[in-house]
Amino acid sequence: MAEEELPIGAFEVQTAPYFLDQSEYGRFHSAGREGTNAVRYGVIGLLNSPGSSALVGLDDELERFGFNRNLLHGEPTDGEFEKMGQFLREAVGLGRQGETNFEEIQNSSWAALIEGASAARLTLLTAGMCNGNERESAAAAVALIGNLNSTFSVEGRDWMGLEAFWRESNALRNYLDFWPFLSGYGYGNLLNVPELFFRTDNSNESIWAYESEWLVRRAIRRSPSTMFLFAALLDIAWLRIRIAQQSTDPVVRQFAEALAFRLERKESFTAQEKSEHRNPARGTHDHFPSTMVHGTWGWQGDWWYPGGSFHDFILKNYRQCLYKGGRPSQWNGSLKENHRELAGMRFKDWVADEDPSLSLCSVFAHSYGADVVAHAINAGIRIQELILLSAPITDLLQNVIPRVGRVMDVRLRTDAVLLLADAQQRSQGGVVHKSFRKGTKVFQVIAGHDYLDHTITHNVQFWKEEDIANRIGL
């Protein structure tokens, strides 16, 4: 299918083994290449990460992006820490500026990685982070920080020690002489206008690409040890995240937010032990109220709010019982698990005000808003239908799902934001979640096209193009 025929927001996966498109005019970034590479970085950031379930059930999808099963399921090897540093030093030419093109490094390290050289992943992510494409470089920076985190855990090294070293040691920046760039040097004001860092056409020039490559080469040349080198890479990556957080591109901001989830220390939570077991709500679509629950920082949007585009679309076409008053349930959208738990308790109070039996007809929950709903189910609310929109498959959600009458699970083919957040998006057995009990009706719909935008599952045009309502039987 030609790219111009794709739905708005969709991209066509590029299968060629290089990171830039080729034409008679040279190399360039297309929307398809941008989306393909962002997903690739998300996956690479998860390689050799024991305990992660984010790649579960994605083997077939990720083969389209060039990954083989051996690579996806490879185990960490001894000495990976030093091997990654050595591979990077050799790939960049031991810091000799201008001798190796970073786009060539992307292609060569990708080829090495596919052939089994797992130590090439840090080099590929570093080169990707220095990319002039805003979305690709943000995705690579997030993946780099996450993968260094995993590598330190595997090696038995003190990751928090390195992070503290990076955060508190002025000696590092003084030693590497990073201060001119990191403290401004003519670019300080540009941090508030992040789009100026990146090219807006097909040229290969950008402020970020030029300066970040200089910083990486300087780090390689001056770092006396691998520990110093990795700390310097963290410094550069966090600078990239700082710029991404202020981006005008919502997808780039989603990538930056994903990192906070990945690094969050998750508290143990046993949903079954804390739950008040109740049967699902029963009744017609008009018997109980319906509502929508936004995800992280979603209160800033209006898709879920009465009068919002998606709210109106569902209200007028599918659920006339959808709440349309002036006091809809909302929460602060915080990254913290305890905030989501508190939001769940308050959601229960909102439900009690709307229906004394604590029953709802349909609940549309986006992303981590699904965990808010799960906490409310634990607190005793009953739901007839739960429509999940790009929701991570957490243990909490899996444990409460059997108490819902019917589940409609709407997902992207490969959700780059969930990959970068190290969050599971498929179940062990495929389309049916492993803890769904017999009798629970689950309808899972995977988008027919590839999309980067994590929020597109509550977009009206997406629902129309992908025929979501008919496919889930809404």
Task: Please outline the helices and strands.
Elements: E1 10-11, E2 21-23, E3 26-28, H1 31-44, H2 59-63, H3 69-72, H4 80-92, H5 102-114, H6 120-129, H7 134-155, H8 159-168, H9 170-176, H10 179-182, H11 207-222, H12 226-245, H13 250-263, H14 271-274, E4 291-293, H15 309-317, H16 337-354, E5 359-366, H17 369-379, E6 382-389, H18 395-400, E7 406-411, H19 416-420, E8 441-446, E9 450-451, H20 460-465, H21 468-472
Parallel strand pairs: 4-5, 5-6, 6-7, 7-8
Antiparallel strand pairs: 1-9, 2-3
Protein architecture, described:
This protein is an alpha/beta fold. It contains 21 helices and nine strands. A five-stranded parallel β-sheet has the order 4-5-6-7-8. It has a two-stranded antiparallel sheet with strand order 1-9. Strand 6, helix 18 and strand 7 form a beta-alpha-beta unit. The longest helix is centred in the N-terminal third of the chain and has 22 residues. About 9% of the residues have low confidence.
